[in-house]
Amino acid sequence: MTLPALQPQTMAERILSMRGGKTVYAGDLAVVEVDQVMVVDSIAQSFIERMERDLAAVPKYPERVSIVIDHVAPASTVSVAQAQKEAREYAAATGVQLFDVGRGICHQVLMEEGLARPGWIVLGSDSHSTTYGAVAAFGTGMGATDIALAAASGKTWLRVPESVKVTFTGQLQPGVSAKDAALEMIRVLGADGATYQSVEMHAGDRFTRGERMTLANLCVEAGAKAGLVVPGGEILTDYGYDIPEWVYPQPGANYVREVVLDLDALRPRMSAPNEVDNVHDVAALSAELRGMHVDQVFIGTCTNGRIEDLREAAAVLKGRRVAPGTRLLIIPASSQVMEQAMEDGTLLTLQRAGAALGTPGCGPCMGRHQGVLAPGEVCVSTSNRNFIGRMGDKDARVYLASPAVAAATAVMGRIALPEDVLAVAGV
Amino acid sequence: MPRIWKFGDSVNTDDILPGKFAPFMAGEDVFQTFAFHYIRPEFAAEVRPGDLLIGGKNWGLGSSREYAPAALKKLQVGGIIAPSFARIHYRNLLNLGIPAFEADLTGSLNDGDEVSLDIATGRLTRGSDVFQLPPAPEFLREALAEGSILAFFKKHGRFPGERNPGE
After folding, report:
1. Quick check: helix, strand or coil at residue A41?
2. What are the residue ranges of helices labelled H in A113-199?
3. Does A2 reside within a domain?
4. For an engineered disulfide with A136, which of A118, A286, A322, B19 has Cβ 3.0 to 4.6 Å away?
């Protein structure tokens, strides 16, 4: 099927045109078929209530709905356990797919299960559903009511977003990762720099699928509706995706803004409290910040809990120990990541360095369990938000960084660069 | 008379309702008592039905959690006025039927001001001062006429702007 294009289209315009069966441009309203609806444990009860009480509906296509128990997994309280029990019962009764405790974080699990594919529309009840743009799926987050409407109807409505074009040039240098590129992108765009818009990332064959997930994941921190990476490199060759021609943007498409990010010049970045776009060059942080004691280091989440990330951390931690007075929490993003890290010895390296390992899931990211912070504590985290009270007490502070910077920080007990650690011989 | 609660720029969903007080953790009956728990701890106890919130740019950034606006709904907040809203949160407000207006009144109104708001016309008054708020985007008015997008969908079996089945 082809649709008449009156003028060249962005990636978002092309995907939403094809999936809505009507040529649309930024600003138009599109009603599109939804390929996957993802529900997380924290809103499962609201979702079920909307479906059963408000809509009196069952999922139109049960195979297109997934429930993932990840935000507080395993359950920390009786009320959480009850919510998760209801989610399991709902899945059993309706035939929707359930990914239970330990399988991992929703976005990682859907990607591993092939439930996000090029050209698909994937809606998740989690704002980081932009992650699916890593494989050229139009992924976006919505609340419980929108998610229920999509499950009941098989469709959703979207205002077709304007697009910001981000072009990556050069190559990541040693000690610098996709997280640093993502934080730099958020710094340049600003926390509301892409609100209602699609961030269309042109990276050629740079970045693995996992790195593309990190980039697409953080786009929501600029307010974006979607973070779409133009297919290239590993995802073209290694995953067997069928990549339709209509996911690629057309030359001459209209962008509201164009940004070029030079990876050659990029150095490790850190986002300081309490806004994600408060991004700094780690090397240029004040002596006071560089000397501050760090109580906890957390490596994990949908942003940075993949095998690439654990290996990056292990390369810094190998043969070294976490500094006295600092805790290192490591939570793989999924059971598959956990298995990979077991098989190649990464997990043993991390364990021997003194890490505390957790069940695959969201961990303490949003301050619910498995490592929340006390008043005044400082955490360097590979997660995606550093808002007031996000990971525990309102007077705790969260600094966002790459796995390599987080690992170096764990070794030194203060904010550090990988080279600070690698310059010192391991034990 | 409804009163104004004034906030700054970039009020995020963790500010509106911290994740640790989500209904499935704090309890369905009491989670709303944690609204603005860290940034305005007196809010939940002192807010009165119909009170209006005004904020700066990018209101509601962050999480997709619908229980953040659901807490405000339970507290019977009368509406939110901000120059710009984060998109997921804006959809959640629409879905819950909490009036949201895109306007910057942070320089014109103060905390505690007594005002009245006509939702249908967007006319906000404080004493003799009148502020005209902009209408909802055109493609949403069809849905808002039914109360919410969910109500529209239940009645028509389709989304606003979507062709009728069989058309």
Report:
1. helix
2. 144-153, 178-189
3. no
4. A118
